[in-house]
Amino acid sequence: QAQSGILYPRDSETRQVKSLDGIWRFRSSNDSAQGFKETWFAERLSKSGPTIPMPVPSSYNDITEEKALREHVGVVWYDRTFFVPQSWKDEHLRVWIRFGSVHYLAHVWINGKPVVYHEIGHLPFQQDITEVLNYGTENRITVAVDNTLTATTVPQGSLDDIQTINGAKTVQRYTFDFFNYAGIHRSVHLFTTPDLYIEDVTVYTDIIGSKGIVYFNVSYSGTKDRSSVNCWVDLVDADGASIASTSKDGIEPSGFIGKIEIPNAKLWWPYMMNPQPGYLYTLQIRISTSTQWSYNVEDIYRQPIGIRTIHWTNSSLLINNKPVYLRGFGRHEDSDIRGKGLDLPLVAKDYNLLKWIGANAYRTSHYPYAEEIMDFADEQGIMIIDECPSVDTDKFSSVLLKKHKDSLTELIQRDKNRPSVIMWSVANEPRTQYPASSDYFRSVVNHVKNLDYRPVTSAIAQAPGYEYAGQFMDIIGFNRYNAWYTEPGKTEVIQLNIESEAEQWHKKHNKPVIIMEYGADTMPGLHLMPEYIWSEEYQIELLSEHFKAFDILRNKSFFIGEMIWNFADFKTDQSTTRVGGNKKGIFTRNRQPKSAARHVRKRYMQLAQEL
Ligand code: GCB
Questions:
Q1: If you take atom 10 of ligand 1, which residue's CA is the nearest one?
Q2: Separation of alpha carbons 155 and 390, rounded Å
Q3: For the residues 337-362, what does the mean pLDDT come to?
Q4: Among all residues, which ones are annotated catalytic?
Q5: Is ipTM > 0.90 here?
Q6: Looking at ligand 1, which atom is closest to the CA of residue 176?
């Protein structure tokens, strides 16, 4: 399973990064055991049978014209060769492999030797592979990817046999609607670190008056027969100037805990709350070894950081001591052809659209998004509700609980230093009408509290009266589809229902409340007047009725945000309620605006001015 430190692979004076993205060889098999039995990892896949070219990163489902591959359940195999330079064979160097994410489960072999196994998609994992590489010559990597979801995976699913004319066929069932895309979804990197390397850094920032304080903990790993390991930490501003530093000699591997103070610090502000939102400094970390006679820089790593605080009360959420109101969306990593594969043009486009529409926040519904996506949020001041992959959590077993916690451990480990992350969401629509969910979520939330300082939330679908998880949350998030799943077409019910439900949540828990999802499926180009469900007019009408309720609620102060479901249309599993996928987007899947986009923009821009 994952290492404790999972720093993003960045090159530096002491580190090299090599990408393994590109076309891999790919093969699926109807028998998940076949490749293991026939040891496809022990020889080149291309020699063990026919393969097809498969791009990495990408989901594999929509790349071919095969229905069977789109709906494949079980294991698929990826394989490629790569070279490692002779210069990397050095007793002072380690070579690592790192996957940004593989969904759902991955077994990795290099040169026929198993090197790493990782379960839970959407999260990175890495492994020191120094010992298994061939230097100065060719290597091969094989990855077996299993997309099967069960009662104890995160998220959960179940397997079912359906009868066909050709016999029984196993199908994957799941209760959430987004398509269970699978494959090597994010970049694959080889990178080097020195033998003695910076293993992790954790940052916490505070503000006193105009002074910013950066507390940090740097840990290192690796042995070195030197008398002393030293650490030097510089804070570098956005113009590249080193403005403060601190150092310590003779540090232990477990860490150098220190702080840097900056008079007149430039704070990290959300988008449109400051002329320079998303201001980032860089924490430049160097570790060195020294003897009586010499001093050697061993490793250098640069960690972007933002200086900001997060506080919350029973009625508000404060960034840098100013209350914030979140205006944004639930989203998905989803696009045509690539599915959930990382696609940088799409990432850049999405942020341009978010800014165009005046959003200042979104939730990474319903799983952690790519690190490259999170970087944009840090840099542009978009506030993130960072969600773990638990969706529709049900059948609360101890095995599930452990994995659910693991997913949060790995998520927090990955994103703990990101200024954009302002809340952890521990679940989407868990089945918290059951009393058994109470102990389960107490335990999940305690786990998060032991790891990090940020507020905890979840997107709750149950009604306030019969709900067992809200009590453990710092901020109450609810999903509600008035005039869509309930009373479709009856937009008259919206204002009353939303106002009274938000009030009930606040009354029950005395905590800030945010609506995490509301919306209507809208077929682009369908125009029906007077407003009729599925039309562009209806989406506008439904949103407008919600806006009325939100404006009343905002004045009551405990209501801290509105998130439309969804930013863009996305692919779903096949269902009679979905026409070519979920169409609740304000943008189409191709990121073109529906009529509602300008309507939302008007509101979000206005809110930005008012608040
Ligand atoms: C929800 C889910 C979300 C769905 C949405 C819908 O409550 O949280 O994943 O996509 O409803 O459109 O049905």
A1: 177
A2: 5
A3: 98
A4: 429
A5: yes
A6: 9
